[in-house]
Amino acid sequence: METRSSTVSDQKSEESEPLPISEYVRELVSKAQRATRKLASLSTSTKNQALLTMAEALVAKSDELLAANERDLEAFGTTPGNKAMADRLRLTEKRIGEMAAGIREVEKLPDPVGMMSTMWTRPNGMQVGRVRVPIGVIGIIYESRPNVTADSAALCLKSGNVCVLRGGSEAIHSNTTIAGILAEASEQAGVPSGAITFVDRVDREVVPVLLKQDRFIDLIIPRGGESLMTLIAEHSTIPVIKHDAGVCHVYVDAAADASMAEAICINAKAQRPSTCNAMETLLLHQSIARTLLPKLATSLKAANVEIRGCPKTCQVLSDAKPASEQDYGKEFLDLILAVKIVKNMDEAMEHIAQYGSRHTEAIVTTDYGRAMRFLKEVDAGAVLVNASTRLNDGYQFGLGAEIGISTSRIHARGPMGLEELTCSKFIVLGSGQLRE
Amino acid sequence: METRSSTVSDQKSEESEPLPISEYVRELVSKAQRATRKLASLSTSTKNQALLTMAEALVAKSDELLAANERDLEAFGTTPGNKAMADRLRLTEKRIGEMAAGIREVEKLPDPVGMMSTMWTRPNGMQVGRVRVPIGVIGIIYESRPNVTADSAALCLKSGNVCVLRGGSEAIHSNTTIAGILAEASEQAGVPSGAITFVDRVDREVVPVLLKQDRFIDLIIPRGGESLMTLIAEHSTIPVIKHDAGVCHVYVDAAADASMAEAICINAKAQRPSTCNAMETLLLHQSIARTLLPKLATSLKAANVEIRGCPKTCQVLSDAKPASEQDYGKEFLDLILAVKIVKNMDEAMEHIAQYGSRHTEAIVTTDYGRAMRFLKEVDAGAVLVNASTRLNDGYQFGLGAEIGISTSRIHARGPMGLEELTCSKFIVLGSGQLRE
């Protein structure tokens, strides 16, 4: 490997005894913390130049990157059972190009640091405003997809935040290489060393230790499955914004346009099933099940989707596999779809409240009143009318970018863009005002 | 006591064995959780009517309230050492009137639930917007000041949130009475039972148990001292927005207007020393120390403020007590002021970075460049130029109200008003859009 990220273990020869985990983590995060003041004060043009240099370096070193990814893929293996996971892990020239393009998109976005939306004057004459400032050090703990490394580094840099990145062990070679290329390129452009910090030791004990570094890390953003979320809930003394599972539903109403419903269902399920905003359960109004379901099932089958149906679904589709109770509320992340026929929208909304993860919920209908009621009453990060759940995404929503889709209720909910990576401070321009 | 809040222990006769703490807390918070759906769907006019009824009831029952407060004050005692704390605890007719007026102010504020600041159209034609929705159940853990009970209940109700209130044991009679009056009045106006929940058992084990109820409570807002914050950091599995100590500085620059500096310092220190936004340390530029300090010291002494000075301060003020290292970074919450003479603004900003709690920081200067630099480089929830630190407050800033001053960097920082008590959901109005 030609390029390496700036990590503590670099300072040791490969022969020497590795540092104890707690010391390794402490050195890494305290170095990261030391980069905050310089990073927060960098000009927008310096940050932008660094982003362009980073994008260029990724493409220039794509051979190195593909070789590292190949090592990860070999170690991971590809059985039919983990095909979706392998798909998330795989890098190609195209995906590297997309990563670089993603970084260039971030370069074009407005710098959120220093933004002030309004300033108002109080009766006593003092002017009050709210200015966006970096959060500080953001720890990002994620699984599988190596593009998260590049996305996270670019978004944190643009928003003036130091990032401490911890990827999944299955992508360790890909991630180490990406982070190394980006850190090196950013430093060439004037970004302080430590601003892009990658945790390059795969030991399982690293994460619990990382989660206790509240003196050095201001926010943890985890992106992954249930076991990661449980680990973090148990150990973190640092504020957390979760990027948790998506158990997303599409409810096809009695008054749905049949061809629109079919197109949305195919897209929501099959366009990229391994993502958190893919549909996992289809809820279908009973009055249109017999006319819509057979045609929809044919299209789903053509897209290799396995249907697991409720008893009524199995009556309509004689070859459908019966759904078990566990199939509802399950994040398949694969070409599997649970289907349930419901009496009415109330039953659909109750099902969503009971089994959904409050991530993304959609209705297909031509009825105005039911569309408005669904929007108002369904509780989720994003609620859509007549659109695919797959559109719940920072780019698609026009935020310019996203570091993920928050399933927390605090600070940010739904797609999290650059602005959500900052916090605010109040500023007051006075002329001698006192409290009376 | 005539009025009682709706709590589990009400259901037991006073003779019977009390419930184990874990069962008591679980019953209380699960009842609170059950109130969320109805509360979230209440109309603004119902919520407003409830607030007016609550304000009226507080005033109508002020005798009952004063009697309860007297019991707390007797138990607390008043030695010179805890005079500031006793001041925070004391209720008077005037303060009860202020509490009621505070609730009526909340009634007049716009309802944040359902607010949508902008809606935008994407190139594919779908419209995307962000709607404010209640957070859910908010647990508020606080010390001393009984008005927090009324403020919190009113703000949570207006923003559609259920509150679970846990006050300090020293104010248990005052708080139980306030919460009881408010819960009863709100229910008369159509608010579901449980929406204003008060934890009426003072056992120390209650808080750790409360902090694990992440299935039922969505957010914890603690308002208190260091030991409370440590307890919460150790035990909470629920997201927390801290309302922590304020170690606030005023830096009087070389180019300060002397009479403005004096007025701001007296106000920041002495107007209400027991609050988190009172000045604790004065930083004074060396070039004006000899001219400003003697006159300022006379005014501070007239306001009964004890000065603890650095060696240079003690040279100028021969009767000043020398400051110890522990006096810097200390939240006195009393009529005590640490004073330090600094070489220049850089030394002042370094002192603030080292000893401050990032709560409220102010500069007094007529120099434009230094004012702008101080605003940009000092990291705090509020940074003020030529205004008293005491103005860092939701009412003073025009937020209409505040539930406290957040010292967290996430979700809300500085005064936290109604909008900060909500989260958002994205809504999408589509016409068949798919992800490409």
Please count the beta strands of chain A (DSSP E, at least 2 residues each).
Answer: 16
What is the count of distinct domains of chain A?
2
CATH fold-type name of the largest domain in chain A: Aldehyde Dehydrogenase, Chain A, domain 1
Q: Please tell me how large the radius of gyration of chain A is.
A: 24 Å
Shape of chain A: globular
What is the percentage of strand-forming residues of chain A? Answer: 15-25%
Class computed from helices, strands and strand pairing of chain A: alpha/beta
Helix proportion range of chain A: 40-55%
Distance between the termini of chain A: 66 Å
> Which oligomeric state applies?
homodimer
- What number is the mean pLDDT of chain A? 92
Largest sheet of chain A: 7 strands, parallel
